[in-house]
Amino acid sequence: MTTEKLTIFHVNDLHSCFTNWPHIVGYVNQHRDESTLFLDLGDHADRSQLITEATEGKGNVELLNHAKIDYATIGNNEGVTFSKPQLDRLYEQATFPVLVGNLFEKDGSHPKWAQPYAIHTLESGIRIGLIGWTAAFTGLYSQLGWKNEDSLEPLKEIVQQLKKETDIIILLSHLGLFKDEEVAAKIDGIDFIFGSHTHHVLANGKWVSGTLITQAGKHGHYFGQLELEYDLEKRKICSVEEKMVAAIDCEPSQETRVLIEQLEADAFCKLNQRVATVPHDLMVSWQDNTEVIQMLCDALAKWCKEEIAMLNAGVLLESIRQGEITKGDIHRICPHPINPCVVELTGAQLKATIERAFTNEIRYLELKGFGFRGKILGRMIFTGIDIFLSENEQVSGIEVLGEPLQLKETYRLATLDMYTFGHLFPDIFQAPNKEYFMPEFLRDILAWELGQEWA
């Protein structure tokens, strides 16, 4: 029996946490040969990090180039936190193919920087089909000027095509584990799904309907190493072994460390631009209404051209001290890739949302994800809405623009997009009418308001 061994390293959801990146690159460099592939499954970039923000993600691409990534797909952090022009420019210098089969221009053509799939041929003649597929944030992509396909039928068609042309089929997926399981169950012919998005750690992968699904958590604490053996005579895979490698146990690449330090220094200089000169300290308290968080909530309403607004105090991570405030300061204080949005709610839905906001479950929730990069949600702050509380901090009355809230009336509420993605506030999540303001982030509104007040 003549066999060929292939090693596939995979990393997902780094989110610009570069502490572990030199260790990952160092290990891959030490174990790389002509029968090795290195894959990135998206969300390598995260605009809450200084380098990513200052370089509009191009620093991430430089790090991927330096690591000699073979193929990559995009996650939602690449896809919907950058404007369309920024994403169009992001991969201009990439030395690797970007695979995305379900993102299109409005006219239905593929982006100039991406291709739906690739065929990689090893020296032994083994042909590997690689397909990229990203999470369907159809509404957000549409507002940014893209078309994002949610159906799995186009993926099935590509797999059927590649079954005729390749020996092994790999899906680079930023769909999340549950969607990956659905793909494996519904689409025959995919050998491996290298997954991401939901931050699961699958120590040895998970087999579903003959397809091995992998995922390696987040932030590069772990990365995957898949070893497979292929029978060249029978033209089939004869053995597979998947394992997680702890990055901290790996010898780091010193060249990568130096590159990160250079990128950090350049980013700091780039963001060292004055936004405003604040005449006095603006204190932050996550459980109180302070001058600066009320100023931000009022600015949110103005930005969205609405009369009422709400946001949680935990979005500001630090107090703003008297003196000059730079773009870098604003980024550090409000790092979240969170967009403003407007949601239409009935009075009954608004009442239920406000009552939930004042529960200890929400006020002290240590949220991770949905764009939030803080510690806890904190107290909910309002513009145009007055809340009356009982002695035990329960909502006893609500007025909107000076009038009692009407349960059957429809209200347009300026708020944060992160409330629309999960089940923090079910009535907001389920609301049919939502308008997102993109690509500006909450920190852009903060900088705008401070500049208006104290330029």
Automatic annotation (TrEMBL):
* A GO cellular component annotation in the UniProt record: outer membrane-bounded periplasmic space
Please provide the Gene Ontology terms (biological process) for this protein.
nucleotide catabolic process
Matching CDD domains: MPP_UshA_N_like
Question: Coiled-coil stretches, from where to where?
Answer: none
- Similarity comment: family membership: Belongs to the 5'-nucleotidase family.
Instruction: Kindly give the PANTHER family that the UniProt entry links to this protein.
Output: 5'-NUCLEOTIDASE-RELATED, 5-NUCLEOTIDASE FAMILY PROTEIN
Q: What is this protein called?
A: Nuclease
